[in-house]
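ok so i was messing around last nite and threw this chain in just to see what happens. nothing serious, just curious
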Amino acid sequence: MQGNEPTAALSRAGYDPDFLKVSVAPPQLDAALEDDAVPVDGAVIIPYTHFSLVMSRSRQFARWVGWNIDGSRMLLLSRSGINFTKDSRLPGDLQIGNELYQGNRLDRGHLARRSDLLWGEMDEAWQANRDSFFYTNIAPQMDDFNQSRQNGIWGMLENALYDLVDVQDLRASVFAGPVFHVQDWPYRNVPLPAEYWKLLAYRENGILKARAFLLTQDLDQLRAVLALDEFRVYQITLPELEDRTQLRFPKVLHDADDFSADSLVARQPLDSRSDIFW
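result:
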């Protein structure tokens, strides 16, 4: 069960847009970004087990990752013996590897959470476990990223959804990724994303809902002595998410997003899970 190089053992169907019994297509890139996507076998959406992603040629990280969660079929599997590795289906120089993470406080952070992917038949879940460790699903995060002073809200968004909402069929579809800014500070010649986003889609009482979130991490400390960092988590609207990411989400998600708030500049960050508008 060890190792994670792509094989033909099981079909890698990737993100399923019909998982919620209503079609939720993945985001599309703005026209200006289309040439930045890295194709595999002629397609820019790269499939893995229970998730898919689009890679950025210029930034060498995923621009977005989309995955499905079946909470009724979850398994507990060890990560022991599974190494982070580059995906041989893509050129190695288009993936940031371990050279970024050695000797500092940067973690190799999963974009699609490993635990979210571990469902289905045993072989299927094991393959999802291994697939989650490809560097295509990894982005740099400070080592207290998921344990920020906002009570770890970012690392527990999916948990909070299942704890606080009567999610129909225990199913959710999630999209996430880094926000790329031209002013992102370079470290070891790699511009580090200072913001990350996540969108959760689920059904409650037959109604599709979508909720989007933004996390900002203060990387100023990385330039100095890697002291403790500031993290802020905000709930945002889909138009705000699109403006930040240059991604376009389908109308069905816009219709499912009924969150409204003051401008992000004036908005307060989330202090606890109870602040989330579901």
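not much to say yet. The chain has one domain: 28-74+96-270.
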